[in-house]
Design goal:
Rossmann fold, five-stranded parallel sheet, binds adenosine monophosphate, binds magnesium ion
Amino acid sequence: MLASETTRGVKGRRVREKIPAILHSLVALRVSHFTAQVLRRRFGLSIPTFLIARRSGSVVESPRLMKQPVQITPPIRLKNFDPAFCHALDKDATREKTMRLCQRIGELQELLNANAHQSVLILLQGMDTSGKDGAAKHVLEFVNPAGVEATSFKAPSPLERAHDYLWRVHQAVPRYGNIGVFNRSHYEDVLVVRVMKLEPESIWRARYDQINVFEKHLAENRIILLKFFLHISKAEQAERLKARLGDPRKDWKFETGDLVMRAKWSLFQRAYEAALNRCSTSWAPWHIVPADRKWYRDYVIARTVVDAMEGLKLKWPKPREALAKIKIV
Ligand code: AMP
Ligand code: MG
Protein backbone atom coordinates (compact mmCIF):
# COMPACT_ATOMS: atom_id res chain seq x y z
CA MET A 1 0.00 0.00 0.00
CA LEU A 2 2.71 2.33 1.10
CA ALA A 3 4.89 1.24 -1.80
CA SER A 4 2.12 1.87 -4.43
CA GLU A 5 1.39 5.31 -2.90
CA THR A 6 5.07 6.10 -3.24
CA THR A 7 5.02 4.93 -6.86
CA ARG A 8 1.94 7.12 -7.53
CA GLY A 9 3.71 10.03 -5.83
CA VAL A 10 6.77 9.60 -8.02
CA LYS A 11 4.61 9.28 -11.14
CA GLY A 12 2.68 12.41 -10.19
CA ARG A 13 5.87 14.34 -9.64
CA ARG A 14 7.21 13.17 -13.02
CA VAL A 15 4.01 14.35 -14.75
CA ARG A 16 4.14 17.68 -12.88
CA GLU A 17 7.76 18.12 -13.95
CA LYS A 18 6.73 17.63 -17.55
CA ILE A 19 3.97 20.26 -17.47
CA PRO A 20 6.18 23.22 -18.50
CA ALA A 21 7.56 21.22 -21.45
CA ILE A 22 4.02 20.18 -22.49
CA LEU A 23 2.80 23.77 -22.29
CA HIS A 24 5.83 24.89 -24.24
CA SER A 25 5.07 22.34 -26.98
CA LEU A 26 1.42 23.47 -27.11
CA VAL A 27 2.49 27.09 -27.40
CA ALA A 28 4.90 26.15 -30.19
CA LEU A 29 1.94 24.54 -31.99
CA ARG A 30 -0.20 27.67 -31.73
CA VAL A 31 -2.88 27.90 -34.36
CA SER A 32 -3.49 30.96 -36.46
CA HIS A 33 -6.33 33.35 -35.71
CA PHE A 34 -8.03 32.18 -38.87
CA THR A 35 -7.80 28.46 -37.91
CA ALA A 36 -9.14 29.24 -34.43
CA GLN A 37 -12.12 31.01 -35.97
CA VAL A 38 -12.82 28.10 -38.32
CA LEU A 39 -12.59 25.57 -35.46
CA ARG A 40 -15.01 27.63 -33.38
CA ARG A 41 -17.55 28.24 -36.16
CA ARG A 42 -17.49 24.76 -37.69
CA PHE A 43 -16.96 22.53 -34.66
CA GLY A 44 -17.82 24.75 -31.70
CA LEU A 45 -14.30 24.28 -30.33
CA SER A 46 -12.99 27.21 -28.40
CA ILE A 47 -9.21 27.50 -28.43
CA PRO A 48 -7.63 29.18 -25.38
CA THR A 49 -6.02 32.49 -26.32
CA PHE A 50 -2.52 31.36 -25.31
CA LEU A 51 -2.76 28.75 -28.06
CA ILE A 52 -3.58 31.33 -30.74
CA ALA A 53 -0.67 32.93 -32.56
CA ARG A 54 -0.48 36.70 -32.48
CA ARG A 55 -2.49 38.09 -35.37
CA SER A 56 0.24 40.27 -36.80
CA GLY A 57 3.84 41.12 -36.34
CA SER A 58 4.95 37.52 -36.44
CA VAL A 59 8.64 38.04 -36.40
CA VAL A 60 12.01 36.46 -36.75
CA GLU A 61 14.33 38.46 -34.57
CA SER A 62 17.88 38.75 -35.63
CA PRO A 63 19.72 37.71 -32.47
CA ARG A 64 21.97 40.75 -32.47
CA LEU A 65 19.25 43.04 -33.68
CA MET A 66 17.01 43.63 -30.78
CA LYS A 67 13.35 43.79 -29.92
CA GLN A 68 11.79 45.37 -32.97
CA PRO A 69 12.19 42.77 -35.68
CA VAL A 70 14.23 43.48 -38.75
CA GLN A 71 13.65 40.36 -40.82
CA ILE A 72 9.94 39.76 -40.93
CA THR A 73 7.66 36.79 -41.29
CA PRO A 74 4.21 37.67 -42.67
CA PRO A 75 1.62 38.68 -41.81
CA ILE A 76 2.71 42.07 -40.52
CA ARG A 77 1.03 45.45 -40.15
CA LEU A 78 3.25 48.49 -40.65
CA LYS A 79 1.48 50.33 -37.85
CA ASN A 80 3.13 47.87 -35.45
CA PHE A 81 6.58 49.06 -36.48
CA ASP A 82 7.94 52.30 -35.05
CA PRO A 83 9.90 54.29 -37.69
CA ALA A 84 11.79 56.07 -34.89
CA PHE A 85 12.82 52.87 -33.12
CA CYS A 86 16.53 52.81 -32.22
CA HIS A 87 16.73 50.23 -29.47
CA ALA A 88 17.83 53.00 -27.09
CA LEU A 89 21.30 52.83 -28.61
CA ASP A 90 23.80 55.62 -28.22
CA LYS A 91 24.11 57.59 -31.46
CA ASP A 92 27.87 58.16 -31.47
CA ALA A 93 28.78 54.68 -30.31
CA THR A 94 26.47 53.20 -32.95
CA ARG A 95 28.04 55.36 -35.66
CA GLU A 96 31.44 53.97 -34.66
CA LYS A 97 30.09 50.43 -34.87
CA THR A 98 28.52 51.15 -38.26
CA MET A 99 31.84 52.41 -39.59
CA ARG A 100 33.56 49.19 -38.57
CA LEU A 101 30.74 47.16 -40.14
CA CYS A 102 31.09 49.12 -43.38
CA GLN A 103 34.83 48.46 -43.40
CA ARG A 104 34.02 44.79 -42.96
CA ILE A 105 31.69 44.94 -45.98
CA GLY A 106 34.68 46.24 -47.98
CA GLU A 107 36.78 43.26 -46.89
CA LEU A 108 33.99 40.78 -47.52
CA GLN A 109 33.47 42.13 -51.05
CA GLU A 110 37.15 41.37 -51.78
CA LEU A 111 36.49 37.77 -50.79
CA LEU A 112 33.29 37.73 -52.84
CA ASN A 113 35.27 39.00 -55.83
CA ALA A 114 38.10 36.49 -55.33
CA ASN A 115 35.60 33.63 -55.42
CA ALA A 116 33.38 35.17 -58.12
CA HIS A 117 30.74 32.55 -57.49
CA GLN A 118 28.00 34.57 -55.78
CA SER A 119 26.75 38.12 -55.74
CA VAL A 120 24.95 40.20 -53.15
CA LEU A 121 22.07 42.45 -54.12
CA ILE A 122 20.93 45.15 -51.69
CA LEU A 123 17.45 46.27 -52.69
CA LEU A 124 16.19 49.52 -51.15
CA GLN A 125 12.58 50.63 -51.20
CA GLY A 126 10.86 53.43 -49.29
CA MET A 127 8.92 56.62 -49.64
CA ASP A 128 10.65 59.77 -50.94
CA THR A 129 13.31 61.05 -48.50
CA SER A 130 13.40 57.72 -46.65
CA GLY A 131 17.14 57.64 -47.34
CA LYS A 132 17.66 55.10 -50.09
CA ASP A 133 20.52 57.11 -51.59
CA GLY A 134 22.06 58.03 -48.26
CA ALA A 135 21.97 54.43 -47.00
CA ALA A 136 23.65 53.09 -50.16
CA LYS A 137 26.32 55.79 -49.96
CA HIS A 138 27.19 55.08 -46.32
CA VAL A 139 26.93 51.33 -46.27
CA LEU A 140 29.16 50.90 -49.33
CA GLU A 141 31.58 53.67 -48.39
CA PHE A 142 34.55 51.32 -47.99
CA VAL A 143 33.85 49.01 -50.92
CA ASN A 144 36.05 49.09 -54.01
CA PRO A 145 33.90 51.02 -56.55
CA ALA A 146 34.84 48.43 -59.19
CA GLY A 147 32.97 45.86 -57.11
CA VAL A 148 29.73 47.83 -56.86
CA GLU A 149 26.91 47.98 -59.42
CA ALA A 150 24.32 50.58 -58.49
CA THR A 151 21.07 51.14 -60.35
CA SER A 152 18.34 53.72 -59.72
CA PHE A 153 15.04 52.72 -61.23
CA LYS A 154 13.00 55.63 -62.59
CA ALA A 155 9.71 55.61 -64.47
CA PRO A 156 10.35 53.19 -67.36
CA SER A 157 11.71 54.62 -70.62
CA PRO A 158 9.91 53.88 -73.93
CA LEU A 159 12.42 51.06 -74.56
CA GLU A 160 11.81 49.59 -71.11
CA ARG A 161 8.06 49.91 -71.55
CA ALA A 162 8.38 47.93 -74.77
CA HIS A 163 9.48 44.91 -72.66
CA ASP A 164 8.08 43.03 -69.70
CA TYR A 165 8.62 44.86 -66.39
CA LEU A 166 11.35 42.49 -65.18
CA TRP A 167 13.49 42.93 -68.30
CA ARG A 168 15.34 46.01 -67.07
CA VAL A 169 15.65 44.54 -63.60
CA HIS A 170 17.28 41.28 -64.64
CA GLN A 171 19.87 43.18 -66.66
CA ALA A 172 20.84 45.18 -63.60
CA VAL A 173 21.48 42.13 -61.38
CA PRO A 174 25.16 42.26 -60.33
CA ARG A 175 27.70 39.90 -61.81
CA TYR A 176 29.20 37.22 -59.55
CA GLY A 177 31.71 38.76 -57.18
CA ASN A 178 30.02 42.16 -57.02
CA ILE A 179 27.63 43.90 -54.68
CA GLY A 180 24.60 45.39 -56.42
CA VAL A 181 22.39 48.16 -55.09
CA PHE A 182 18.88 48.81 -56.34
CA ASN A 183 17.51 52.24 -55.49
CA ARG A 184 13.87 51.30 -56.13
CA SER A 185 13.26 48.11 -58.05
CA HIS A 186 10.66 45.80 -59.60
CA TYR A 187 8.61 46.50 -56.45
CA GLU A 188 7.62 49.84 -58.01
CA ASP A 189 5.54 47.69 -60.33
CA VAL A 190 3.32 46.72 -57.41
CA LEU A 191 3.66 50.04 -55.53
CA VAL A 192 3.49 53.21 -57.62
CA VAL A 193 1.78 51.25 -60.39
CA ARG A 194 -0.90 50.06 -57.95
CA VAL A 195 -1.41 53.35 -56.10
CA MET A 196 -1.37 55.60 -59.16
CA LYS A 197 -3.45 53.09 -61.14
CA LEU A 198 -0.89 52.92 -63.95
CA GLU A 199 -2.05 49.40 -64.84
CA PRO A 200 -5.32 47.56 -64.21
CA GLU A 201 -5.54 45.53 -61.00
CA SER A 202 -5.48 42.20 -62.86
CA ILE A 203 -2.00 43.12 -64.15
CA TRP A 204 -0.32 44.26 -60.92
CA ARG A 205 -2.02 41.66 -58.73
CA ALA A 206 -0.49 38.82 -60.73
CA ARG A 207 2.96 40.32 -60.18
CA TYR A 208 3.44 39.28 -56.54
CA ASP A 209 3.69 35.63 -57.56
CA GLN A 210 5.78 36.51 -60.60
CA ILE A 211 8.21 38.44 -58.39
CA ASN A 212 8.51 35.50 -55.99
CA VAL A 213 9.32 33.17 -58.86
CA PHE A 214 11.84 35.65 -60.30
CA GLU A 215 13.56 36.10 -56.94
CA LYS A 216 13.64 32.34 -56.40
CA HIS A 217 15.40 32.01 -59.73
CA LEU A 218 17.97 34.58 -58.58
CA ALA A 219 18.47 32.85 -55.22
CA GLU A 220 18.93 29.46 -56.89
CA ASN A 221 21.56 31.08 -59.07
CA ARG A 222 23.55 32.33 -56.06
CA ILE A 223 22.37 35.91 -55.90
CA ILE A 224 21.96 36.81 -52.24
CA LEU A 225 19.02 39.19 -52.26
CA LEU A 226 18.67 41.47 -49.22
CA LYS A 227 15.48 43.56 -49.40
CA PHE A 228 15.15 46.59 -47.14
CA PHE A 229 12.04 48.69 -46.66
CA LEU A 230 13.11 52.03 -45.20
CA HIS A 231 10.22 52.79 -42.88
CA ILE A 232 9.91 56.56 -42.39
CA SER A 233 7.06 58.41 -40.67
CA LYS A 234 4.93 60.97 -42.48
CA ALA A 235 6.02 63.66 -39.98
CA GLU A 236 9.71 62.94 -40.60
CA GLN A 237 9.12 63.10 -44.35
CA ALA A 238 7.59 66.56 -43.93
CA GLU A 239 10.72 67.69 -42.07
CA ARG A 240 13.00 66.30 -44.75
CA LEU A 241 11.00 67.82 -47.61
CA LYS A 242 11.11 71.22 -45.87
CA ALA A 243 14.85 70.88 -45.35
CA ARG A 244 15.22 69.95 -49.00
CA LEU A 245 13.44 73.15 -50.07
CA GLY A 246 15.73 75.29 -47.96
CA ASP A 247 19.05 73.76 -49.07
CA PRO A 248 20.60 74.69 -52.45
CA ARG A 249 22.48 71.36 -52.42
CA LYS A 250 19.21 69.47 -52.18
CA ASP A 251 16.39 71.61 -53.58
CA TRP A 252 17.08 70.36 -57.12
CA LYS A 253 15.78 66.98 -55.94
CA PHE A 254 12.35 68.43 -55.17
CA GLU A 255 9.54 67.52 -57.57
CA THR A 256 5.90 68.48 -57.19
CA GLY A 257 5.21 64.81 -57.92
CA ASP A 258 6.67 64.07 -54.47
CA LEU A 259 3.71 65.91 -52.93
CA VAL A 260 1.25 63.95 -55.05
CA MET A 261 2.77 60.73 -53.66
CA ARG A 262 2.78 62.18 -50.12
CA ALA A 263 -0.94 62.94 -50.42
CA LYS A 264 -1.47 59.21 -51.05
CA TRP A 265 0.55 58.18 -48.00
CA SER A 266 -1.91 55.65 -46.59
CA LEU A 267 -2.48 54.04 -49.98
CA PHE A 268 1.28 53.63 -50.31
CA GLN A 269 1.52 52.14 -46.82
CA ARG A 270 -1.14 49.60 -47.80
CA ALA A 271 0.67 48.80 -51.03
CA TYR A 272 3.95 48.37 -49.12
CA GLU A 273 2.22 46.12 -46.60
CA ALA A 274 0.93 43.94 -49.41
CA ALA A 275 4.37 43.73 -51.03
CA LEU A 276 6.03 42.87 -47.71
CA ASN A 277 3.43 40.26 -46.86
CA ARG A 278 3.18 38.68 -50.29
CA CYS A 279 6.90 38.72 -51.13
CA SER A 280 8.77 38.02 -47.91
CA THR A 281 9.95 34.52 -48.72
CA SER A 282 12.51 32.16 -47.24
CA TRP A 283 14.72 32.76 -50.28
CA ALA A 284 14.34 36.56 -50.31
CA PRO A 285 13.00 37.90 -47.01
CA TRP A 286 12.04 41.52 -46.47
CA HIS A 287 13.67 43.60 -43.75
CA ILE A 288 11.89 46.55 -42.17
CA VAL A 289 14.36 49.26 -41.27
CA PRO A 290 13.26 52.02 -38.88
CA ALA A 291 14.39 55.02 -40.95
CA ASP A 292 13.50 58.18 -39.00
CA ARG A 293 17.02 58.17 -37.54
CA LYS A 294 19.60 58.01 -40.30
CA TRP A 295 22.38 56.67 -38.05
CA TYR A 296 20.19 53.79 -36.87
CA ARG A 297 18.99 53.03 -40.41
CA ASP A 298 22.58 52.68 -41.63
CA TYR A 299 23.52 50.53 -38.65
CA VAL A 300 20.66 48.08 -39.25
CA ILE A 301 21.45 47.72 -42.94
CA ALA A 302 25.22 47.41 -42.43
CA ARG A 303 24.71 44.83 -39.66
CA THR A 304 22.34 42.78 -41.83
CA VAL A 305 24.67 42.87 -44.85
CA VAL A 306 27.67 41.81 -42.75
CA ASP A 307 25.70 38.96 -41.17
CA ALA A 308 24.53 37.74 -44.59
CA MET A 309 27.98 37.95 -46.15
CA GLU A 310 29.72 36.32 -43.21
CA GLY A 311 27.11 33.58 -43.43
CA LEU A 312 28.57 32.69 -46.84
CA LYS A 313 31.75 31.57 -45.02
CA LEU A 314 33.92 32.67 -47.90
CA LYS A 315 37.56 31.65 -47.95
CA TRP A 316 40.41 32.85 -50.12
CA PRO A 317 40.54 30.56 -53.15
CA LYS A 318 43.55 28.30 -53.64
CA PRO A 319 46.14 29.54 -56.16
CA ARG A 320 45.41 28.36 -59.69
CA GLU A 321 49.03 27.30 -60.30
CA ALA A 322 51.74 25.54 -58.33
CA LEU A 323 53.39 28.62 -56.85
CA ALA A 324 56.42 26.82 -55.44
CA LYS A 325 57.79 26.40 -58.96
CA ILE A 326 57.41 30.07 -59.85
CA LYS A 327 60.58 32.15 -59.80
CA ILE A 328 60.40 35.92 -60.02
CA VAL A 329 63.60 37.22 -61.61
P1 AMP B 1 13.45 59.25 -57.58
O1 AMP B 1 13.67 58.00 -56.83
O2 AMP B 1 13.15 60.42 -56.70
O3 AMP B 1 14.53 59.52 -58.57
O4 AMP B 1 12.11 59.06 -58.43
C1 AMP B 1 11.96 58.04 -59.34
C2 AMP B 1 10.50 57.98 -59.71
O5 AMP B 1 10.35 56.94 -60.66
C3 AMP B 1 9.61 57.68 -58.55
O6 AMP B 1 8.53 58.57 -58.51
C4 AMP B 1 9.12 56.27 -58.84
O7 AMP B 1 7.83 56.02 -58.34
C5 AMP B 1 9.17 56.25 -60.35
N1 AMP B 1 9.22 54.87 -60.85
C6 AMP B 1 10.17 53.95 -60.62
N2 AMP B 1 9.83 52.78 -61.19
C7 AMP B 1 8.65 52.96 -61.78
C8 AMP B 1 7.78 52.11 -62.52
N3 AMP B 1 8.08 50.84 -62.76
N4 AMP B 1 6.64 52.64 -62.98
C9 AMP B 1 6.34 53.93 -62.74
N5 AMP B 1 7.10 54.79 -62.06
C10 AMP B 1 8.25 54.30 -61.57
MG1 MG C 1 12.49 61.99 -55.93
